[in-house]
Design a protein that fits this description.
10 helices; globular; 6-stranded antiparallel barrel; alpha+beta; about 20% strand; Thrombin, subunit H; about 375 residues
Length: about 375
């Protein structure tokens, strides 16, 4: 795109983000996103750029105060000053979003954009009382959990297996994306946990570690890091790369209780809470513990990751779109240890009914617990 077209496209992106397009324009633009990866990426980059700038602005005063304290301590000889400045963050933002920055800088009046309003309209804020994260916060170990741990310990003693017991503070759901124990869940499920383990539908527990945490997309990649875990020969489902359609029937699997639970519904809107373009709205029953669970279409493809729901509205649930799993995997591949990671977009369950699909899938869906 040339400079003039870039400016026009960025203007369209901002109108789309703010919800200022009429229904016909919005439909045309969403179809354009589906068919043009560059435009879709521009929407995502501009969203992240605004969020980063907003966070940077909020921290500016705090960093200034820290700098003053640092300088005073250095002058007193209590610490060694490296003369670091706040430029590192700016350089990072420039390198990552230089294209968006260059376009934005050429638009008259760009500094008048209501950044906070834009950011708040893009994604549900975890503290927004209208939205509830579907993670289960456990303040006191319930008797049900104690009984479950006791049963697992008994089984472990019998089988001479290692078992991990710890006070659980959070639990949600996660699912495999490759055969060797790489899993996806929500970032908010694991971000505050020091130790993580996952539990399958048979009650087997395994240690896990966080490989990649992306709070912006609310996606986390975790890895089962346990010698007792046996790799799968294959996964029955694939991860959908493209967007899904309104009214498409969907089903979910997750752990709002100690046993795996099935849910059924349909995709009710192409965006999430207040037009969040990272998510879908889905009409399905969901409860605390469902966070991080997969959303499947009728062909057995993962189309999303359950994350939040409207607090006072029944069956109004939001799921991160599955295409962002690929974005987070791309980030993980920048680490040489994981540059060969591959995930499949193909499902082998197209011709199966839901009962048979669930039988094949349920072993790949885990409860995720953290302390």
């Amino acid at each position: 795109m040339n400079d003039k077209n870039d400016i026009m496209m960025l203007d369209a992106v901002e109108r789309y983000i703010r919800g200022e397009m009429n229904p016909d324009e919005r439909l045309h633009f969403e179809n354009l996103r589906k068919t043009n990866g560059e435009i879709d990426q521009l929407v995502v980059e501009h969203t992240l750029f605004l969020q980063q700038i907003n966070q940077f602005g909020e921290r500016k005063n705090f960093k200034s105060e820290l700098h003053d304290v640092h300088t005073e301590l250095a002058q007193q000889g209590k610490i060694h000053s490296d003369k670091l400045t706040g430029k590192a963050k700016v350089v990072y933002l420039w390198k990552r979003y230089r294209r968006v920055t260059a376009i934005a800088a050429s638009i008259a009046g760009v500094t008048a954009i209501g950044i906070t309003t834009l950011v708040n309209s893009l994604a549900p804020h975890p503290k927004d009382p209208k939205v509830q994260e579907l993670v289960h916060e456990v303040t006191v170990m319930k008797q049900v959990q104690k009984n479950l741990d006791q049963k697992i310990n008994t089984k472990a003693d019998k089988d001479n297996q290692q078992v991990f017991t710890m006070p659980v503070r959070f639990n949600g759901t996660g699912f495999l994306i490759n055969t060797s124990g790489l899993m996806i869940t929500n970032a908010h499920v694991v971000k505050n946990s020091k130790n993580i383990y996952v539990q399958n539908n048979k009650g087997d527990q395994f240690r896990a570690i966080v490989l990649r945490l992306d709070p912006t997309k609310d996606v986390a990649i975790i890895k089962i890091d346990d010698d007792r875990f046996k790799s799968f020969s294959s996964l029955p489902y694939g991860i959908r790369k493209t967007s899904s359609d309104i009214a498409e029937s969907v089903f979910t699997l997750g752990y709002p209780r100690s046993q795996i639970v099935y849910g059924e519904g349909y995709l009710s809107a192409p965006t999430g809470f207040e037009g969040d373009t990272l998510s879908y709205q889905i009409s399905v029953d969901a409860y605390p513990g469902n966070s991080g669970g997969p959303v499947f279409n009728k062909n057995g493809e993962v189309i999303g990751i359950l994350s939040t729901k409207e607090t006072h509205t029944e069956r109004s649930v939001f799921a991160v779109q599955s295409k962002y799993i690929y974005r987070v995997i791309d980030e993980l591949r920048k680490n040489k240890l994981w540059e060969n990671v591959r995930i499949s977009s193909k499902s082998t369950m197209n011709d199966l009914d839901k009962v048979q699909q669930v039988k094949k899938i349920q072993d790949c869906v885990f409860m995720v617990k953290g302390d």
